[in-house]
């Protein structure tokens, strides 16, 4: 059965000690990395966010993992494709703001500036074409080093969704546009994870993000690092830790149905007791909470109609929007225009992917829904 290692970590100054405890409970880093391995560490650098904003993987955790891999004889490259355009100048700014340049200085690891990618064909749950960053394809081992966050579209983002950043730049928007149903989009994420097959998945939950994640929420201290060889089991454990039922997170629900992870009760935990880190009132992103409608067996057309009415929609705060146009550039269905230095969205075209919210540098995009449903689904 999958094993989840749990290590208390009160602050990032203790990240290295906590990570070594975490990995030791899984048998040590040598269980995952062999001498001479070329290892890609895939952090969550979704956008230019400072570490204290809790939107990206903290550099102290990254540095701890890098040093452990190096001690095992592996060479390390950090590789990530953030949201939006993907080129060397953007990567340099991302690395600087997110703290990766300091990690490089401390550890001597390599930062990826190669913006090349390759198309691969993969048949999993469906036949798919993925464009994947070249350094990830060339790696001997991949480590998914994710951040614990809520997510307006998918509810939760962790080890599995972190690998969406293996797809370069605006190629990600094509997947959003083609897979507008959450179930279809999350099935694609599972196939992508199965193709990449991370050797180890680690979750930075020292400080997570609650509310309107993955970039516009609020930092929340959780005080723990989690690690597992099974990314699906890790996400099941982490989402349960912050109060989600398995059927509320589509990647978790599907991975359970597929048998890629056993139920929570069958997971093996080592290290510190995970119950010590449970948070019942972890604030969720505004979205559609229709899972309970299926539990009471309402007809599917009614469920879909309520889902459509209840879904949150992007709304731009005119007091925060500066008309930079980042949302319009990255909108998959091109539903956003800039008029009089303010963003405006055509809700008839909007597919509720909330890429605009993820990538807005001013946190000007709010998730709003009909007041009737806001009261019904009060969070």
First-to-last CA distance: 34 Å
Order of SSEs: EHEHEHHEEEHEEHHHEEHHEHHEHEEHEH
Q: Which term fits the overall shape? A: globular
Taking pLDDT < 50 over at least 5 consecutive residues as the criterion, the unreliable ranges are: none
Counted up, domains total 2
Classify the beta-strand content into a percent band: 15-25%
Structural class: alpha/beta
Walkthrough of the structure:
The protein has 379 residues and is α/β, with parallel strands linked by helices. 33% of the residues lie in helices and 23% in strands. It contains 15 helices and 15 strands. Helix 2 runs parallel beside helix 4 and helix 9 packs across helix 10. The chain starts with a strand and ends with a helix.
Give structural attributes.
33% helix, 9-stranded mixed beta sheet, Rossmann fold, two-stranded antiparallel sheet, globular, 2 domains, Alpha-Beta Plaits, 379 residues, alpha/beta, single chain
């Amino acid at each position: 059965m999958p094993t989840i290692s749990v290590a208390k970590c009160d602050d990032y100054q203790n990240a290295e000690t906590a990570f070594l405890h975490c990995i030791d409970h899984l048998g040590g880093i040598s269980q995952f990395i062999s001498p001479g391995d070329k290892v890609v560490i895939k952090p969550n650098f979704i956008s230019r966010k400072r570490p204290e904003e809790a939107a990206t993987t903290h550099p102290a955790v990254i540095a701890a993992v890098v040093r452990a891999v190096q001690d095992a004889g592996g060479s390390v490259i950090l590789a990530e494709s953030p949201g939006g355009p993907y080129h060397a100048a953007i990567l340099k700014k991302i690395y600087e703001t997110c703290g990766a340049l300091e990690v490089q200085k401390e550890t001597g690891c390599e930062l990826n500036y190669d913006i090349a990618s390759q198309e691969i064909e993969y048949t999993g749950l469906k036949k798919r074409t993925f464009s994947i960053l070249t350094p990830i394809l060339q790696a001997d081992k991949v480590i998914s080093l994710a951040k614990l966050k809520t997510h307006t579209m998918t509810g939760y983002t962790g080890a599995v969704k972190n690998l969406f950043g293996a797809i370069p730049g605006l190629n990600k928007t094509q997947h959003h546009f083609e897979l507008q149903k959450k179930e279809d989009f999350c099935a694609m994420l599972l196939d992508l994870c199965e193709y990449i097959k991370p050797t180890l998945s680690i979750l930075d939950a020292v400080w997570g993000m609650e509310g309107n994640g993955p970039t516009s929420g609020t930092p929340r201290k959780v005080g723990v690092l989690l690690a597992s060889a099974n990314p699906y089991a890790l996400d099941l454990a982490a989402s349960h830790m912050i109060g989600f039922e398995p059927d509320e997170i589509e990647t978790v629900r599907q991975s359970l149905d597929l048998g890629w992870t056993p139920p929570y009760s069958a997971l093996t935990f080592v290290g510190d007791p995970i119950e010590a880190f449970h948070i019942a009132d972890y604030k969720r992103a505004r979205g559609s909470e229709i899972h309970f409608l299926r539990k009471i067996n309402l007809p599917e057309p009614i469920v879909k109609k309520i889902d459509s009415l209840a879904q949150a929609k992007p709304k731009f705060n005119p007091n925060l929007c500066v008309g930079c146009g980042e949302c319009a550039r990255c909108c998959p269905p091109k539903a956003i225009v800039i008029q009089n230095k303010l963003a405006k969205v055509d809700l008839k075209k909007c597919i509720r992917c909330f890429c605009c919210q993820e990538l807005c540098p001013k946190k000007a995009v709010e998730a709003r829904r009909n007041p009737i449903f806001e009261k019904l689904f009060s969070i």
